[in-house]
UniProtKB/TrEMBL annotation:
This is Cytochrome bc1 complex Rieske iron-sulfur subunit. One of its GO terms (molecular function) is oxidoreductase activity, acting on paired donors, with incorporation or reduction of molecular oxygen. It is a multi-pass membrane protein. GO terms for cellular component: plasma membrane. Residues 1-38 are annotated as: Disordered. Residues 1-20 have a biased composition (Polar residues). It is found in: Cell membrane. Keywords: 2Fe-2S, Cell membrane, Disulfide bond, Electron transport, Iron, Iron-sulfur, Membrane, Metal-binding, Oxidoreductase, Respiratory chain, Transmembrane, Transmembrane helix, Transport. The chain crosses the membrane at residues 52-72, 92-114, 160-180. Belongs to the Rieske iron-sulfur protein family.
Length: 363
């Protein structure tokens, strides 16, 4: 047993820096390479290739199913009317084809690529020292490595596998292009005008009953649509008009709310109405935190502050929710003073020359 510099005994069970040479473990190296069945059996390799091709074909079939549901299945009639079996059946079929198409499209190409890599691509282990590619010789070496990878992938030797991969890769993203197209109208001017107008009553959704100002209690919330929405048929754009016109109605303590001078007559004794359409990508803002007076969009967590005219305090939304000016009629019911003073919906619709175009059409 040794001792420390201060004379205390040292057991020797703990190694200290500088007193014992560090033992170096030998490099175990790479384990022996175990060839796969497809490496030694040409029939197994051919079978794996057919499996990958089948997965890519499943992806192509899924993309085709999506387009059949998206463009080929027409939903006519009021989809919320359970007595209209033709409309509900068509809607069910369309949703089935859309969901199944996207699932098969992504599943086929994803599993196909993984199966290809695990069974057909080379799996030799190697270690390369990292170095900077600077000289022309090194660039040529890098090009040679990429060429080798391309050759070892088997794309040249397996044209059917290559062609099905190309077909699946081309078709797979297209369903998402169709879904992105539905985020908003191609004619942005339609967002400038809704069904709200002077004297239009605020009614509950979906019952359609009008709302008296005296019935709106402190802290209560109503999902509201314009009364004249009921006069529009489902084949005449009912859903489009409702999507633009939906409103959240809440009553707050007037002493806790900051109101700008130009909006002093836009509320009724602390009753405020704001668009439910989030200014980020148009999701429905439907979560109201009564204690904090915050409105929350469930899609991307954009948060709006009710006491400060729905300004954005968190999330990706870029502008406040549009406020609907309201008042009461002679019978005590809540009515709109006018339409929204700004377009509803995502902020991207307000960029560039679109604002000028919409203002020109509105005038």
């Amino acid at each position: 047993m040794g001792s420390h510099s201060d004379g205390t005994p040292q057991s020797g069970t703990v190694a200290t820096t500088g007193t014992t040479a560090m033992e170096r473990f030998p490099d175990p190296g790479l384990p022996p390479h175990r060839p796969r069945l497809t490496d030694v059996d040409s029939k197994a390799a051919k079978r794996a290739e057919r499996q990958v091709v089948l997965l890519f074909l499943i992806s192509i079939l899924g993309s085709i199913l999506f387009f059949i549901g998206y463009f080929g299945v027409r939903v006519d009639g009021p989809i919320y009317d359970v007595t209209d079996t033709s409309a509900t059946t068509a809607l069910w079929l369309q949703n089935l084809l859309l969901g199944l198409g996207i699932a098969l499209g992504m599943f086929g190409i994803g599993i196909g690529i993984v199966h290809w890599a695990r069974t057909l691509m080379p799996d030799h282990e190697l270690v390369e020292e990292r170095h900077e590619v600077r000289t022309e010789e090194q660039r040529a070496e890098a090009q040679s490595i990429l060429t080798t990878i391309y050759d070892e992938s088997g794309i040249k030797r397996r044209p059917l596998l290559r062609n099905t991969l190309i077909g699946a890769a081309v078709l797979a993203p297209l369903p998402f292009v169709g879904l992105l197209k539905d985020l908003g109208p191609t004619n942005l001017a339609v967002l400038r005008q809704t069904l709200w107008d002077e004297g239009v009553r605020l009614v509950r959704d979906p019952s359609g009953t009008p709302i008296r100002a005296a019935d709106v209690t402190l802290g209560s919330t109503y999902h509201v649509v314009p009364e004249n929405l009921a006069s529009i048929g489902h084949n005449e754009g009912y859903l489009d008009e409702k999507a633009k016109s939906v409103v959240l109605l809440m009553r707050l303590d007037p002493d806790t709310v900051n109101v700008s001078p130009e909006r002093e007559d836009w509320n009724v004794d602390g009753i405020f109405a704001y668009s439910k359409v989030c200014t980020h990508v148009g999701c429905p803002v439907a979560l109201y935190e009564q204690q904090t007076h915050h409105l929350l969009c469930p899609c991307h967590q954009s948060t709006f502050d009710l006491v400060n005219e729905c300004e954005v305090i968190f999330g990706p939304a870029a502008r406040p929710l549009p406020q609907l000016p309201i008042t009461v009629d002679a019978d005590g019911y809540l009515v709109a003073r006018s339409d929204f003073q700004e377009p509803v919906g995502p902020t991207y619709s307000q960029r560039g020359t679109h604002v000028e175009e919409m203002q020109g059409e509105a005038n």
